[in-house]
Amino acid sequence: MKVADLHRGEKRSETTFEQTSIIQNFNGNWAEEMRDITGDKRTDLLYFKNLQGKAEIGYYKAPSKDLQWLPVTIGTMVLEDSDEAIENIKSIDIDGDHDLDILVFSKIKSSNDTTFVSELQWYENVGEDQWKWHQTTTIFDAFLEGEFDFADLDDDDKIDFTVLLANTDKLFIFKQEEDGKWNKIKQLSNSHMNSDVAIGKVDDDNYLDIVISGQIYYNPGSDMSEPWKTEKLNEKWKNYDTNANHVTKTALTDMDFDGKVEVYMAHAELAGYPLVAFKNISGSWQYRIVKDSMPPVKRLEVLDFDKDVDFDLLVTVASVDTLSQQPSVTTTLMQNDGSYINYKEVVIKKTSAAMLHASDFDMDGDVDFLLLPNSKSTNFSILENTLN
Questions:
Q1: CA 146, CA 231: separation in Å to the nearest integer?
Q2: Contact indicator for 208, 201 with CB cutoff of 8 Å
C-alpha cells in the first residue's frame, strides 16, 4: 500500500506501510485507548479478561524494535458471582503525580446480595511496574452503559469525569474531591444529547467546555454545580432530518494555535451528511464543509500525520459493499495542504470490521497504525510507516 505524503504542498518521498503481526490468539477485551503505561514513550495496549471466578487487568508492553509484545499483569479481582464482571478500564493520571494509573469499571453484587451495583476501583502506579489497589466510588448500574470521559474540568489539578447516558439525553458530571473519590455534582439535560462527548477550551477562560451533537456547554468555572451556559454551533445541523437520531462524532483541536479550539463534526449513523469544520470568528460560529457527503463516521481523529506542523484528519467510516452486500470499515487519511481548505484523501485500510489506532509505535518520528481486531479475530497487527 502506498500513500503520497504532502508537506505544505511540497511532495515528499512516497510513504509505504508494512503490516506486522504483534499479538496472536488474544482472549480478552482491549481498551479502545492506547497510552504509554510505562513512561518509556512507547504506546502500550491495555486489556482486561473476565475469567472463571476472577478478572485480570494488564497491558501488552510495547517493545523496542524487532522484540515481542509481552503481557504484564497489573492486578486480579475476585468475581464472587457469575454475573460479576469488569465492564471497562481507562488509563489516566488520577493522583496528579505525572504517571498513568488504571481506573476499573466493574459490576459487582450489592451488600444485600439481591442487586448489582457499579463500582469504580483504581490501581495506583507506584513505579517500577508496581501497582497499589484502591476501592473508590459506587455509582448507579445504569452508568456503565454510558460514555465516560475524563478531564480536569474545574482546573484544580484533579481529574474529573462525565458520563453520557444516550437513551436519557442526560450528562452527569463527577468531581474528584480527593485521590480516587468522586461525587456527582451536576446533571445536564438536553434533546439530542446522544453523541460522543468532546471536551476542550472553547472560550477565553481557563476551564474546559463540552460539545455534544453541535451544542456547546460552557463550564461555569471552579463551582461546576452552577448553571452551564449553552450555545448551538449551527441550528441547521439538527434540521437536516427532524426524525433522525442525531448521533455525531466530534473532534476539538486548536488548529491555528490561538488558544481556542475549532470543532470538527460528522454524523455517526446517517449517510449523506457533510464533514464540517466550525470556527468562532468575532463571536460568531462560522463553518466550512470539508467534505460534502460522508458515510456514517465511526471515528474522527485530528493528528499531524506528515509532521508539517498543521493538522490532518483520520476518518473511519462504515458502509456496505455494493457487490457483496457485506459491511466494511474504511479508514481514510485526509491530508491538509496547510490551508485547512484543501485535503488529499488517502485510504489507509479497508477491512470487514476492524479499527485503526494512530501512534508512532516504532518511535521513528512518523505515524503508524495499530489494526484492532474485529469481534471474531484474536490477532493484532501494526501498519508500520516506512517513511523514516
A1: 23
A2: yes
Residue tagged 499483569 (cell numbers): 73
pLDDT digits (tens, 9 = 90+) for 297-334: 988 999 888 777 788 899 988 777 667 677 778 888 89
Within a 10 A sphere around the Cβ of 130, how many other Cβ atoms? 10
Residue 197 in grid coordinates: 462527548
Q: Count of alpha carbons within 13 Å of 91, Cβ hemisphere only? A: 25
Residue 280 CA, chain-centre distance (Å), reads: 24
Asked whether the beta carbons of 95 and 179 are under 8 A apart, the reply is: yes
Does residue 348 contact residue 354 with C-beta atoms inside 8 Å? no
CA distance 222 to 155: 7
Residue 11 pLDDT level (bands cut at 50, 70, 90): very low
What span, in angstroms and rounded, lies between the C-alpha atoms of 159 and 174?
9
Q: Is residue 364 predicted with pLDDT exceeding 90?
A: no
β-strands 312-320, 297-303: how paired? Answer: antiparallel
Q: CA-CA distance, 180 to 163, in Å (whole number)?
A: 16
Strand order in the sheet with 170-178: 147-151, 160-165, 170-178, 181-189
pLDDT tens digit sequence for 95-115: 889 999 999 888 777 666 666
Give the list of residues 6+ apart from residue 169 with CB closer than 8 angstroms, or none.
189, 190, 191, 192, 193, 194
Write down the pTM of the prediction.
Answer: 0.85
**pLDDT computed for residue 159 by the predictor:** 92
Mean pLDDT of the 267-289 span = 88
Q: Which percentage of the chain shows pLDDT scores above 90?
A: 29
Q: Which of these ranges, 52-66, 324-338, 364-378, has the smallest mean pLDDT? A: 364-378
Task: Judge whether residue 145 has pLDDT over 80.
Answer: no
